[in-house]
Amino acid sequence: MDSYIGGEDGTIESVGAAAWSALGGLLAKLHRLPVDGLDGTAETRLQQAWPIHPDRLEAHPVAHAAPYLPPLLAPFRDAILAAAARPGGIAHGDPAAYNLRLEGGELAGLIDFNDVFVGPPALDMAWIAVYSGQAAAEATLSGYGEAGAAFLTDVRLLSIPVALHSIGRAALLGQPDRTARMVRSLDETLKALRS
Description:
Layout: E1 8-9, H1 17-31, H2 61-65, H3 69-73, H4 77-84, E2 89-91, E3 100-103, E4 106-110, E5 117-119, H5 122-132, H6 134-144, H7 149-173, H8 176-194
Helix pairs in contact: 1-6, 4-7, 5-6, 5-7, 7-8
């Protein structure tokens, strides 16, 4: 698919609000495709993503990187599991800036469908919030259509396992800068959940 979509690869700096909003419209269509007879969970996409993966939070690399976080995250366990179990749709699984193609600042396409799975649509929005920032997530939601308070809460809740997945990958790959970015994301998510 990559070879059929023109334009330049997106970056956090190059993808503007209009392109994020257009992505929201595209994701809304993707999420509404029929999934009758298909099974899947967020577990198929995420690794070391407490509590979707039942590993102890205290044994997760986040406990080494930011020891203050596990006790703050633990109370959200049941709510995260409930958000992850919501009725699913076709989720892209990696709709970050680096998988967008742009032409003249406009969205030309979405690439890298290797991580597609049936799962809660809020997970795609959580991925955007964690990997591309809260402003990107808000702009994407503006093009997505109706997203009530419960959906926004699910986005915040699912941002936790997404960030933990990324911290696990960063520990495996020796990427301390990525770990630091994800710790900041978790701090922001917790602040939003408490407000």
